[in-house]
Write a structure and sequence with these properties.
CATH architecture of the largest domain: 3-Layer(aba) Sandwich
Radius of gyration: 25 Å
Shape: elongated
Largest sheet: 8 strands, mixed
Structural class: alpha/beta
Distance between the termini: 41 Å
CATH superfamily of the largest domain: Peptidase C15, pyroglutamyl peptidase I-like
Number of strands: 20
Amino acid sequence: MAFHRVPPVPHNAFTIATRVKLILNCRFSFLFIILFRVIYPQVLPYGEPQYFSVNPETISEEIFFTNGEFKISKLRWQNGTKLINDNEVLYLIHYTLENESSFHARLDKNSFPEECELYVINPTEKSWVGPYRKEFLKTAFPNLTGRLKATEFILELSAPRNKKIQFPEILIQIISYQQFKKEDSEITRGYPQKSTRENPIILLTGYWPPTNEAVRPFSQNSLLNPSGWIGENWEESGYDIVSFFPSFYPPDCTECGQGYGDLEVDYQDTSEDLWNIVESHNPVAIITFSRGYIDYSWEMEWKYFNWLEWIDDFTPPYQPTPAPPDQDSPINYIRFSSLPMTEIVEAVNSADLGLYPYIDYGGGAGGYLSEYKGFHGVWYKDLMENEDETPCYLAGHVHVGGLVDWDTAHEAVLITVRETIQYINEHILIPGDVNRDGIINSLDIIMILSHLNGITELTDNQFFFADMDGDGEITTLDVVLLVNELLTEDR
């Protein structure tokens, strides 16, 4: 049976991206130089705090939180540790907490000083979130930093020397944290194996390490994955798992840049390549991954914005073309992850991998290349979720901490895929839901009866959900079983 589909991207956008790629056939990577330090890509462009190299003596003050919040006053900045070198001034304030806590900082972009850079540091495990600069905050709403889980933290602010600045207003907010315990769930009925789609596909993408390495075993490209593709009917789930990602030299790079290969860390390449990939694979779910903050987090992103302005990438044109990427939706239109985020967080916690999994309910996924890629995944899902023959049910993005090793990241990817499959099987592929509206009712019975009487013909997907006894035929027995299902639910 031939599939007839509406192209998932506006034609003019795809044409522009194609022309840009032809023009830029000889691409090269730019390194951003900020305060004489090289930056690398992640949820925000990469930077490294000076605290670990300078190793200054700092004065620590204990915080006793009231209502889960603590405001950093301008006076506290002035009373903190101050270091001066030839080019800049470094301000450090050090706090210890009553107990290990999860927290983030809320930044006021209006009061944030120009030409300054802020980090929130966990000195115990040598992790951090940032850098934050005024130009990055323009796309972040409501201006929340990444999370840390720690017993102490250091705020580091660097400013140009001999320039008077206003100190940023910062509100530290404690986030309630629960150690989850997840029980094993019984695997339920899978996707139709007799449909025209054969094994449905779950698409994984990576960006910078460790994410490209974490999904590498699911690549069908023998040059990229010489050990062999592990995704065919993965774990006998009835799903094929495939992956696409950029390559870097060296593979364990820190100055990773744009990369090369199936995907590149570039707005135009990402858009064109992803549309081509989803067009050829018709995935039922899309999970995109990229490197997050330099910590051990497994951050499930909830919101993705149709931004007009993005943080510049490496190669001209530095901004997406077109912008915003979805020309049929308003500027700053929000799309949401549909992944089973709570289940994934619980399962990663229970696996005891040494990761800090959580859901980011804040404002977007960074306004950089990671959010751009994540937005494309949820955009495709929104376009295709009601497609009869080739629907896409779930999509979302995961930011993986830059301190996570490749093997641990791969194990967490496996958990994320398992939870996604289980969610599809239990909550989306509901036997008897013939019209795919998420519930079983009399409308589903009418569709089966109409098929039996020769009035209408069920599509392959509708046929699967109508075949209640799974014998490959639609008979009056299927109607009886569906009626019994309805009666059982009404009790």
